[in-house]
Design a protein that fits this description.
With about 260 residues, the chain is mostly helical. About 75% of the residues lie in helices and about 0% in strands. It is built from 9 helices and no strands.
Length: about 260
């Protein structure tokens, strides 16, 4: 094997270990956030096309539960509550897995949650279309809601609450703020000038763009292939997260972290 090839393999291995590893960089956070936003967009759209529920949209779900409770549409209320409970449960499980690994100083404190998400989506994508149970819609809602809760919680941990891949409202709001700063004319002297954070603007725009692209792929892919459209993104996420878990299995632990 040539030295150049060996260096290339080593660089790929280091990149994959850093992708979901505990030592975060802006570049690693950005790449992972874009990947997770793409997957979130796909899951959200597949959920809507399949069962008419946006499983990542907690604001809309809470409002929908309240509205339909007043209107007496209790079937819709039950669906909304199931999605909300599943999302909250997913976020709670993320906190349990993360802190279990953190207290043991494992590299996989983030990766273990992402591997769980990847496996859930992989199994769901492969088997959901084969369900014939009359109440299978409840399986779709709970699995997708749980996965969205897992993902939103872990990217919140990774980015220290700066990024949420399913919370597009916040990201678009921040984009608007940075655009306002960008066009602001600093006429006064002697005061701190207003400057846009172009790095933040690029990152947020890329995440929103990835979510939009994932939504297109999810809706179009589901109409063409059904639930198996989710197999490919789940494998991609597994490739990104599994090397860090494998490193822990082999005993390659990271330094302690103070994150909670």
């Amino acid at each position: 094997m040539s030295e150049r090839h060996t260096d290339g393999v080593g660089a790929v291995r280091r990149y994959l270990l850093d992708a979901a590893g505990p030592d975060r960089t802006e570049r690693a956070n950005r790449h992972l956030a874009v990947l997770l936003a793409l997957i979130a967009g796909m899951l959200n759209s597949v959920g809507f096309v399949a069962v008419s529920v946006y499983t990542s949209h907690m604001t809309g779900l809470v409002a929908s539960v309240a509205d339909h409770l007043v209107l007496g549409s209790y079937a819709v209320v039950r669906v909304g509550i199931a999605a909300i409970v599943a999302f909250v449960t997913g976020a709670g499980v993320c906190a349990i897995l993360f802190n279990w690994a953190r207290r043991r100083e494992l590299r996989s404190r983030y990766a273990n949650v992402l591997v769980l998400e990847a496996v859930l989506v992989l199994v769901f994508g492969g088997l959901a279309g084969r369900l014939t149970w009359s109440h299978r819609t409840w399986v779709y809602i709970t699995v997708l809601g749980f996965t969205m809760g897992l993902q939103n919680a872990i990217i919140t941990k990774i980015s220290q609450a700066q990024i949420r891949t399913t919370h597009v409202t916040r990201m678009i709001t921040d984009i608007g703020i940075e655009l306002g700063k960008l066009v602001y004319r600093n006429r006064l002297t002697g005061v701190d000038p207003v400057r846009a954070d172009l790095g933040k603007l690029r990152m947020l725009s890329s995440i929103v763009g990835a979510f939009f692209a994932g939504s297109l792929l999810g809706a179009g892919g589901y109409l063409r292939f059904g639930f198996p459209v989710l197999v490919a993104p789940s494998l991609l996420l597994l490739v990104a997260a599994a090397p860090t878990v494998i490193a822990d299995v082999r005993g390659d632990h990271s330094a302690p972290s103070t994150q909670r």
